[in-house]
Amino acid sequence: MINIEKIKQDYENLSSKNYTRLLPLQKIITLETAKEEIIDRFLSKIEKIDNNFEIVSTENFKLDDVISQAKKKFGPLNFFDKSIDNGKINIDIAFNFSLISIYYLNEKLKYRVTIFWDV
Questions:
Q1: Total number of domains constituting the chain
Q2: Boundaries of domain holding 73
Q3: What is the mean pLDDT of each run of 10 residues along the chain (119 residues)?
Q4: 2-38 exposure pattern, b = at least 16 Cβ within 10 A, e = fewer
Q5: pTM, whole model, 2 decimals?
């Protein structure tokens, strides 16, 4: 669950430093809420990613499902990269307001969703 008060404090702190390109606070709260939804609905349920970048999950969704839902929340797809480096599977997906990074190595999954607060 997102901490709206913390977001407001961070936003006010950035605003006080004359960050003029910040998105409106309500938009940031909406994006941060969407981030948690993507994590809860998809990323936290990934069990494995195979060498063909196919997702194995408890919910039987595919990478295209993650991308489709993220587009609805974060805007158009701007960048999509899949790679394998020394056995580490990397998937990076960028949208107008977010970056989703998924890493899989030695049967361990890590993911990160970054929300862009400025334009």
A1: 1
A2: 4-115
A3: 94 87 96 98 96 94 97 97 97 98 97 95
A4: eeeeebeeebeeeeeeeeeeebeeeebbebbebbeeb
A5: 0.92
